[in-house]
Protein 1
Amino acid sequence: MLVAALMTVFSAQPGLAQESSPPRIAPVLAAADLRPARDLSGPWHMSIDPYRDGMAGFHGGKPAMSSRRYADIDIAETERRDGSALFEQDLGRSPVVTLPQSWLTQSAEMRHYQGLVWYQRHFDAHPQPGKRVFLHFGAANYAAHVYLNGEHVGEHRGGFTPFAFDVTDLLRDGDNQITVGVDSQRGDKDVPPPVTDWETYGGITRAVTLITVPETYVDDAWVRLTRDGRIVASGTLDGPAAANRAVRIAVGGLGLTMTARSDAQGNWSADAPAPAGLKRWSPQSPTLYDVRVTAGDDVWHDQVGFRTVSVDGDRILLNGKSVFLRGICIHEEEFGADPTRAITPEAARALLTEAKQGLHANYVRLAHYPHSPVMTRMADKLGLLVWSEIPVYWRVAFDDADTLKQARTMLAENILRDRDRASIILWSVGNETPVSDARTHFLTTLASDARRLDGTRLISAALLSHREKRDGVDTVVIDDPLIPALDVMAVNTYNGWYGDDSLASLPSIAWASKYRKPLIFSELGAAAKAGFHDPTATHKFSEEYQAEYYRQTLKMAEKVPFLRGMSPWILKDFRSPRRQHPIYQQGWNRKGLESETGRRKQAFDVLADQYLRWTDAPPGADR
Ligand code: GCU
């Protein structure tokens, strides 16, 4: 009787029941961005729909034909033939915009629009027998409703991860019409919830492509160096001939070829000792190898770096050697006065080069959500270690089972997209989330999912801490109950900006942890408006105050014996609706070390000089 009662208690508490394995993502289409594809970027028609008439009629149910944006009809022609026909929208004659990019910058009226926008374009296709065609989205923020030739293809929630639909049976030979409704409105049960400290760039913000593959193809492939010195390859075939299929894995430039045979579910794996000639990936030597996986008619390929990352006590080891992470935080927002979250290779290179060449960084925290694959591939190429995270940010509905499901799906989509990226060493499962039993269970479930999906990387989360006097010393104490589920502790610290600490007092603040694990300062920072000066360095928002904040905070950091890295907040100023001071902010968070247009502030050089010194003599090297 008692056991039954306990089971009832557990199952009655949403999110407290023992979690199952990570959600299955299908299709994965790993390395989709390297597959030969038809790129649908370019001109699309756009129409706003603030009251979502295109989604439902005035009493609910299917939308009236007059509002049905996705209907497969030529409205202009219909009106010419029948003057009595009633339509109250027509995407075919709506304004044309260039995708991918957020709608915020399409016009002055759109700058603050949040809600539903419809996009539509036509394209020719010529389906071939024995082939499958996937419609692939790099990301759409926040919910996407996809239609092809008037048919509902599918939906996706989550603004920063890829998704795809098999449209083989819906494609016409000749002209096709794709219509996508993107709704940027988030609710309290979404991930993230409505309130964040960054702009909601609504829209189709990454590439939309048509990917044609053989009817049985390599859907997932993950090739990595394991801590015991082996090259392991594993993945999944998908299609009618996925089972019991020969698979060949070749690592170009290493003369390494492995073979496998898929099982009844299409899963395959192979491994071999790492060849003696293997050049391990590192920031100093970001060596990438061309990897090909062949199965039947399909050849999957990616550019893969081989390295290991681990923790040893309170140290982080890269390729077995202790490393100090000299980092900086970066939002997915290109340099410029009017960014639209269009991350091209040039935009990614500009941001990451400022970190690597300008700041002498070896690490970036790509906050607060999965960034474009353009960014993570650029980090692989330039040689920067990466912290990758999902936007479990601030006040998430931790006790809601659907919210947990959404976060788990987002984490799996992120890891399955990027686990071939050597640059990524950390998966983060949250940022500054208020401690509660429900929150700690929620994040522990995510940490467990991350480990099951990828046992080769480290798990972390940006946490909060608290202050107390210990033996008369002002001490920051780290004792978050989530830490046992993490490999690396990370804390956001703003002493000297938020609160009343004087800058001069910062170096005397001590740090203590209940757990012996490596610590990263996942954020620290102060704001400054570029060009605003106060020689006394006492006025917040002056460049001098920000620079002095960095000098004093870095002195404090050098004294923390288990500190193994930092990613100050943040490389450049970024749009935030929460920052509306008319003189200093005007809708921008000004904690950047440079302005939104890349004008470096005095603090930039303070950090750069410190990182240059730490390059050869990192803190704690002698400890
Ligand atoms: C928080 C948060 C950031 C935010 C920053 C700030 O730590 O993680 O997203 O922008 O502080 O206050 O500027």
Note: DSSP finds eight helices and 36 strands in the chain.
Protein 2
Amino acid sequence: MSKFLINKYQSLEVYTPGEQPKDMEYVKLNTNESPFPPSQGVLDRVSKEELSKLNLYPDPECKLLKDKIANLYGFDSENIFISNGSDEILSFSFMAFCSEEKGAIFPNISYGFYKVYGDLYGVDYTEAPLKDDFTVNVNDYLNTDKTVVIANPNAPTGLSISVEDIENIVKSNPENVVLIDEAYVDFGGKSCVELVRKYDNLLVVRTYSKSRSMAGARLGFAIGSKALIDDLNRIKYSTNPYNINRLTLIAGEAAIDDNDYYVDRCKEIVEIREYSKKKLSELGFTYLDSDTNFIFAKSDKISGEEYYKKLKDNGVLVRHFSNPIITDFVRITVGTRSQMDRLFAETEKILREV
Ligand code: PMP
């Protein structure tokens, strides 16, 4: 840290991305990426010809991509905001809708970045405890005076709340923005996006990083009322108007054209998830009932930390969180069938030795 860093940033606890060690080739089941490549259309469209245009700025409005996403979900382009990964929408939303005066509320066990943005922007935030069964306690979010932020399905638990519960939260908070982060909704969860037509305080956030196999391209989008989208644009045009690079824009457009490919890959991931749950049960693990592309699992034969470490020693990466409430668990991304079989083979070996 230099002596120049402004005081308020010195104590900031930054977000720790999932590790990407380079010392050997790992089976990577730790960051909830898709194990499948982008669709053929994406590969074809990001061409040498497009690369040769990188001397030109991208379209700051992302017009074509917005039109395609709007069309896919049955909204107008003015209801769509495009961002550099959905992290950027979260960042912009904390900037736009939360402050020291306007607090935020989110679950105590959820996506770690909410807290980081809360700290970064000096937000007075509340971390509402999950219930004993690790589900979100909906009552905590009714009639608040705060901006509500909920990942649905939640991470790293994989559990969802119902669209009815979300509607009750949105309805009871007419003076607050309710941000529903649907990063994992395409793997069997129920989207609340239709509620955007009814409520102007709901912002639904999506990402290309999981179900659209484009974590490396950094692309996310939000669907919300025109007024909320205008607010996000105020922040974007005050920070980085060209937030989406030319290649990502093209890839994002092509991915919408190839929507069926991604729907099929999500189905495949759900099948592998269900197969993996059975395998985990056979190995004596218990897990939460995931609606996502990951499984939050634990064994009473080995601690979460030891299991994570032993898997890593044997070339398989999963994610372990040190928070005492969930320290028994590991979060396992659903990979290909062969990646999962490798995980199970290593797990059998590890369990034989403990
Ligand atoms: N929300 C949740 C719940 C996530 O788990 C993630 C990925 N770690 C994100 C948002 C951010 O994803 P991205 O910035 O890649 O779109």
Note: The pocket of 4'-deoxy-4'-aminopyridoxal-5'-phosphate is lined by residues 85-87, 111, 151, 155, 181, 183, 207, 209, 215, 220 (CB under 6 Å).
